[in-house]
Design goal:
With 182 residues, the protein is α+β, with helices and mostly antiparallel strands. The protein contains 4 helices and 9 strands; from the N terminus they run E-E-E-H-E-E-E-H-E-H-E-H-E.
Length: 182
């Protein structure tokens, strides 16, 4: 585990803290986006100064996170006092042709903590949790920014041979990735 900067703590999220996800500073300069065509990633130039969350995301995803929490999904957060600075969520609901995958709901690291290994460590913890549940792979529906997709691919993910139909319908522009863990 990376050593946490002074004043930060790592712990499981409580149900009442799920709404804090939307307070994470996801600011990012995006200069490239991927598009998947015929199984191949194609990079396109972009000029996006991302601030905040897309309109409607909290209303869209918060009920899903609550449902997942109630069915035993796994949520971990990095806090400074009561402020959530980084978080990862892994759904306990089986996915995949044989029910052998688990979905990485999210992996968010505040701008101030990026580049310190926190995202890698949280992702590794999610992979370990998937193995504990008997999963063979972790599935991610990743925002198509070059930074995001390159991060996942540098840490064992590859293009999913067949995207999960429900997740693909929800986010068809995302890059659907799979990381084998067992």
């Amino acid at each position: 585990m990376p050593s946490l900067p002074p004043g930060l703590t790592l712990r499981p999220l409580k149900e009442t803290e799920l709404n804090l996800l939307w307070s994470i500073d996801r600011s990012e300069r995006i200069d490239g986006l991927y598009e998947l065509r015929d199984g191949v990633l194609h990079k396109q130039a972009a000029d996006i100064d991302l601030r905040g969350w897309p309109e409607g995301d909290p209303e869209k995803y918060h009920p899903e996170h609550e449902d997942a929490f109630h069915r035993g999904s796994w949520f971990m957060g990095v806090f400074k006092g009561d402020s959530l600075l980084a978080a990862v969520g892994l759904d306990s609901l089986p996915l995949g042709p044989q029910g052998e995958w688990r979905q990485l709901f999210f992996l968010h690291v505040s701008q101030s903590l990026r580049g310190q290994g926190m995202g890698v460590w949280l992702l590794d913890q999610a992979k370990k949790q998937a193995v504990k549940w008997g999963a063979k792979a972790v599935y991610a529906s990743a925002t198509p920014s070059v930074n995001t997709v390159d991060f996942y691919m540098a840490h064992g993910f590859e293009i999913a041979p067949e995207p999960d139909p429900r997740l693909f319908e929800l986010d068809p522009e995302d890059i659907h990735l799979l990381c084998f863990v067992a």
